[in-house]
Amino acid sequence: xxxxxxxxxxxxxxxxxxxxxxxxxxxxxxxxxxxxxxxxxxxxxxxxxxxxxxxxxxxxxxxxxxxxxxxxxxxxxxxxxxxxxxxxxxxxxxxxxxxxxxxxxxxxxxxxxxxxxxxxxxxxxxxxxxxxxxxxxxxxxxxxxxxxxxxxxxxxxxxxxxxxxxxxxxxxxxxxxxxxxxxxxxxxxxxxxxxxxxxxxxxxxxxxxxxxxxxxxxxxxxxxxxxxxxxxxxxxxxxxxxxxxxxxxxxxxxxxxxxxxxxxxxxxxxxxxxxxxxxxxxxxxxxxxxxxxxxxxxxxxxxxxxxxxxxx
Amino acid sequence: xxxxxxxxxxxxxxxxxxxxxxxxxxxxxxxxxxxxxxxxxxxxxxxxxxxxxxxxxxxxxxxxxxxxxxxxxxxxxxxxxxxxxxxxxxxxxxxxxxxxxxxxxxxxxxxxxxxxxxxxxxxxxxxxxxxxxxxxxxxxxxxxxxxxxxxxxxxxxxxxxxxxxxxxxxxxxxxxxxxxxxxxxxxxxxxxxxxxxxxxxxxxxxxxxxxxxxxxxxxxxxxxxxxxxxxxxxxxxxxxxxxxxxxxxxxxxxxxxxxxxxxxxxxxxxxxxxxxxxxxxxxxxxx
Lengths: 312, 287
Hints:
The complex is a heterodimer of chains A (312) and B (287). Chain A is an alpha/beta fold and 312 residues long. Helices cover 39% and strands 19% of the residues of chain A. Chain A contains 12 helices and 12 strands. Chain A has helices at residues 3-13, 31-35, 46-58, 69-75, 77-85, 114-119, 132-144, 187-200, 218-227, 243-253, 275-282, 286-299, and strands at residues 17-21, 39-41, 62-68, 92-96, 125-127, 149-152, 171-174, 179-183, 205-209, 212-214, 230-238, 260-265. Chain A has a 7-stranded mixed beta sheet with strand order 2-1-3-4-6-5-10, sandwiched between helices. A 5-stranded mixed beta sheet of chain A has the order 7-9-8-11-12, with helices on both faces. In chain A, strand 11, helix 10 and strand 12 form a beta-alpha-beta unit. In chain A, helix 3 runs parallel beside helix 5 and helix 8 crosses helix 12. Chain B has one domain: Rossmann fold, CATH 3.40.50. Chain B has helices at 8-25, 33-37, 40-50, 74-83, 123-137, 155-166, 187-190, 196-202, 215-223, 261-271; strands at residues 65-68, 143-148, 172-178, 206-211, 233-238. Chain B has a 5-stranded parallel beta sheet, sandwiched between helices. In chain B, helix 1 (8-25) packs across helix 3 (40-50) and helix 1 runs antiparallel to helix 10 (261-271). In chain B, 36% of the residues lie in helices and 10% in strands. Chain B contains 10 helices and 5 strands, in the order αααβααβαβααβαβα. The chains are: A alpha/beta (312), B alpha/beta (287).
């Protein structure tokens, strides 16, 4: 099933659903004919679309809104925060071409701070499926929820068959005594390749598809931290505010620590090109990821961890 | 569906009471006195005769919708809601209290407030969403959204006009509180808006321009709703910042006011036609 088929089926079954777009029709081309007045294209007006979505939600509608992830989360940020976030309305944001998926568009179109800023909005929930199969498994739960939601839309097809989705839970693909890779979105595919390479090197490797960044599956993170000698946070996002930050927050919240190697975009936009070339240039292919992890293992010693003694 | 139907004389009396509430709120922290006094007659007219919004039908899906996009007009809205019985008058004594929600911008903890505002240029689009749904659902509800003239600096007001025109939202009325001032100065000295009516007309709206303090003129204009089939309605209401208080009227420095108790007492007399007040309280610079 495709994104468009799922949306069509859901909207036909539920009169509350309104499909909106700021003239980004790539994923909703057939919807106008099927939904009639319940399809609303506001033109290239991300802010007005979000405000109008809030108005529709006030009338008990569930707007599923579409725009490029960069413009949906940043051009319209204050409208998302103020009209959807403060009012806590069930507006469902579908962000197209997030992260590396904007491939050759250039930095204007790179949504690589989207998770950071969306998860900072009270009431907002944030999701990043690994591929189309994952997306189709996650969306019914996301659309059913009463919360506002931002989803990194990822319609890439892979041969991987994901586990059923449980709201807010990660998909623990494997546990590992040496290394666990925590990732989300399209890099899951590269992580699978990296896991194979590392296993061939004799390592015990775990892999977690985070799926939901907010709420986040704290248990999955804590289990990985206690089972593995090294955690990898792998994401097509700035280093700040994404999964690396989330893992740090969770570890601190439970007064524990771990060795973590972040693989992310460290204070830089990525070089625009077609996706396979971007992955290679930025060092995010499965092979390059495996090499970074093996390099870490040999280069670094366990850092000293000072545990202060508190009196009761 | 219930609707208030006060005559001009009754509306005048209510408006005077609302202005008294605004003056009483202009102390101990203060409020947007000058800004909200210009909108009093507009809001009193809309709730008092035009909109079918009463305490009995606040949650009725067939009610009309009122949005105050110019959020700092809220003292005028608080006063109107209190005079029309949607909130208790005593509750206005909680202005700025940590124990209540009567603060400087509207919020939905106040019965009759459909949506919060404060960030300018937001509610045109929210009102559009409501108007769109009324069209989709086939209702007769009217949607009214008050905008400040300074607020029209925000690009999203004009973006919204484009979209409202595209969707032929003739159930939507934008009312501009045209008091000719923005926060710190006259609009025409900063970002000129005139010719304003022809700007809205160029965006496809049907426009009426009236004296926003004249209940007969307001009623004549709003009685013509919908102005033209398939067109967004715009009422440009020419108003006066600080209307009702000659000592602060049309003054750039009396946007937000925080008066002493003595000044409040004098201003209440001034509202009733007594001598103008000699004001020494400094204007708070909020923006």
